[in-house]
Design brief:
Elements (H helix, E strand, L loop, with lengths): L3 E4 L2 E4 L3 E4 H4 E6 L6 H7 L9 E4 L1 H5 L7 E3 L1 H6 L4 E2 L4 E6 L1 E7 L6 E4 L3 E6 L3 H9 L1 H9 L11 H6 L1 E4 L2 H41 L13 E4 L4 E5 L16 E5 L18 E3 L16 E4 L1 E3 L9 E3 L6 E3 L3 E6 L7 H8 L2 H9 L2 E2 L2 E3 L2 H5 L2 E4 L2 H40 L11
Parallel strand pairs: 5-10, 15-20
Antiparallel strand pairs: 1-2, 3-12, 4-11, 5-6, 7-10, 8-9, 8-11, 13-24, 14-21, 15-16, 17-19, 17-21, 18-23, 22-23
Amino acid sequence: MNEWKSTPWGKIPASWGITTIDEASELVTDYTSNGSFKSLADNVKYYDKPEYAWMVRYTDFSKGFVGPFIFIDKNAYDFLSKTKLYGNEILISNVGIIGGVFRCPRLYSKMSLAPNSILVKFKDSDDFYYYWLKSIYGQFMMDSLTIGSVQKKLSKTNFRKMLVPVPPISTQNTIAEILQSIDDKISVNSAINQNLLQQANAILTSYFIDFSRFNGSIPNDWESGTLQDIVDFSNGYAFKSKELLDAPEPGCYRVFKQGHINRGGGFNSGGTKSWYPINKCSTLTKYVLHKGDVLMAMTDMKDNVAILGNTALMTVDNQYIVNQRVGLLRSNGYKNTSYAYIYLLTNSFDFLKDLRSRANSGVQVNLSSTEIKNSPVWIASENINEEFNSLTEPLLTMIMNNDNENQRLAELRDTLLPKLMSGELDVSEIDV
């Protein structure tokens, strides 16, 4: 039986050591390590169009690295010599949002670390400490060293002083391999989904955008209609915030919010932040989501329109209930139209450009139900819609299955993470 010892974040096996980030790492650096504020201002200029190097920010990670990005010229890149990035480094947001931990992507372009993040490289297993920093224990320790009330900050100095565990290197490697194997499978599924979606979008283009399937001409028996001809549209339910649960409990629906919709379209199953008791939903059955429902973001920020009009495709039955400011588009089957056409069309460039041009603009930009329902669409004949469905629905079914598997894998990883990082699960006898 393991013996245990106490740490600021909880108990760990007595055989594990404890040290500071400073002692455990070979490098801790950030943007300001390159010089004084004046020298940085004199030597670093930002560009919003591609330049010599890309500045990597936490906001890029949080948006899935789909842009918009900021860039720097060669002079700035050379000046920022202490924060050049090559891929896979551990980066941590340390201003505003504290403790956002991510790995730098591997790109073919030059990269440099942007302000408001710390770069750390460990002497032992970077992979182990990457997961430890993401765990509840790493998050607790970083939060405990945060300063500031208006704008929170984790200083580089305080981060260096932070205590971390030091398991035997074999234990570090085994824990990291277990967790990495799950993330690798998630990445494989995501890559497969990207390929499947590209195939589905190519079919959409050939049938409904450039009409190459019909030699570039729109068939005479097609109708020029609007979205409301092929969908039953409804707004999400306006839940009272005090009624929502911030942690899952038995007998609850996940509340589908805009955070479940990816930039560019797609379902983010990890976006659940709220739950609602099923026993309170006897009059809310029309808001309960079904597999194949299409969900649209109806609100966005004026100065940074990211997901307005984008849609997600619900992958499961009776597990989610839709929140306000999300539009529910459910296929009505007119002329054999299906969720496949609705989902692919609503995320297409021309459809989004037109829809966003009709948004109401203030501090936020909003889409009205009327404008969404009045969006122009081509309605093909029943035979053509059936043909289109036979080509696209199998692709989208595979995507939904992979999304569901990724959600199960993420839940498994998140369940294992605190148990592995506390030593509750003994991995000394595991051969990975």
